[in-house]
Structures are given as structure tokens and as C-alpha cells.
Write a structure and sequence with these properties.
By secondary structure, this protein is α+β, with helices and mostly antiparallel strands. 28% of the residues lie in helices and 30% in strands. The protein is built from five helices and six strands, in the order H-H-H-H-E-E-H-E-E-E-E.
């Protein structure tokens, strides 16, 4: 469908508000225009480029919220976190993350993103992975953006265990599911 410039810019603004992680390429495809047109529209609307939008979303200063490990040790970029409840991170797959032979991302990168997010979501000074059950459902390639969502599914204060499920997607399609059993030094509520 062809939109007038005014309609397109209005829809563009709404689309980016709904999904700040959408790329210019995806927007160009959605509105059936060139990437350059999208960039010009963004400039006219004073909408920053993707990297800046991601930084704005992460401006909640997660460094002070994540307790279990330094923020720079998290694989991927945390964009939302609610300790002992849920967390989201994004990871841009680059050439150095894939096998040269077939261009498919090495599995340990997807695991590292999911595992570090499972650790980060825990509201404690120490969290360690006890056990994990992993399922890789689709190959991931260079240029893909992996969005990992961690959800705390259960907490057992008696054994100091927290159970976290991480689902990773690329363009809305599930590529990885990890169920993690995490040890923490304190039960929920800070009981030792």
C-alpha cells in the first residue's frame, strides 16, 4: 500500500513507539520505500537511529539494578529488567559469531545470552546455574537480532532455587528455549 508522506510519517512514528527495536530495513520493507526515505523521515521527525533508541530504552540504568554480575558481563544488551520477575536483552549476531562454513551462529552465543540473562534477573548478590535444559529450534545467522526474554517461573526459598525460562526470538520466531535452575544465596525476600 502506498502512503502519502504525512500518513507514512505518522505511521512510522507510531510503529517505532510500539517497537523501538525495529530496523530501518524492516521499516522500509513495511512501508514499501527505500531505506534512505525512512532515514529522511526519521530525521524530519527527530527520531534517533536504532542504536540511540536502544540506549534510550536502556537508560533506566540497569547497571544499578543487576546485582548478580557486572552489566558488562551480560551477553547482549539488557533493555528491560524487573528483578525476580522478568528481563529482556538483545544480541546482534555478527560475522565473528557464526561458523564460516555455513554462516550459522554458534550455539554457545545463544546459550551465553540466555544464561547471563537468567543470572541477571535474580535479585541476589550471587546466582549460579545448577542445571539447564536447552532447545535450539531454528538456525540464527549473521545480521539477525536475537531478542531474549527471561521469565522467573518458580522460586523455592527452602532450597534457594529460582527457575527461569528464557525464550529467544528472531523477528518474532522462536530460535531457542532454555529452562534454567538457578542457585541463589538467599531465598526470595532476603531470608538466608
Amino acid at each position: 500500500m502506498k502512503y502519502s508522506k504525512k500518513e507514512r510519517q505518522k505511521l512510522l512514528k507510531q510503529t517505532i513507539e510500539d517497537n523501538p527495536f525495529i530496523t530501518d530495513d524492516q521499516l522500509a520493507s513495511k512501508f514499501n520505500v527505500s531505506v534512505q526515505t525512512i532515514r529522511l523521515d526519521r530525521m524530519e521527525l527527530s527520531i534517533p537511529e536504532l542504536r540511540e533508541r536502544i540506549k534510550d530504552v536502556a537508560a533506566h540504568n540497569f547497571e544499578n539494578e543487576v546485582k548478580t554480575l557486572p552489566i558488562d558481563e551480560v551477553i547482549g544488551e539488557i533493555i528491560d529488567i524487573d528483578l525476580d520477575d522478568r528481563a529482556i536483552s538483545i544480541f546482534d549476531v555478527k560475522e565473528e559469531h557464526v561458523f564460516q562454513r555455513n554462516g550459522i551462529a554458534r550455539g554457545h552465543h545463544l546459550f551465553a545470552q540466555a544464561n547471563s540473562l537468567a543470572v541477571a534477573v535474580i535479585d541476589d548478590d550471587l546466582a549460579l546455574t545448577v542445571k539447564s535444559d536447552l532447545t535450539y529450534t531454528k538456525p540464527v545467522h549473521a545480521g539477525n537480532r536475537v531478542v531474549a526474554k527471561a521469565v522467573v517461573t518458580k522460586q523455592d526459598a527452602d532450597t534457594n532455587r529460582t527457575y527461569v525460562t528464557v525464550t529467544s526470538t528472531v523477528e518474532g520466531k522462536t530460535v531457542f528455549i532454555g529452562n534454567f535452575e538457578m542457585f541463589r544465596t538467599k531465598g526470595k525476600g532476603g531470608n538466608e
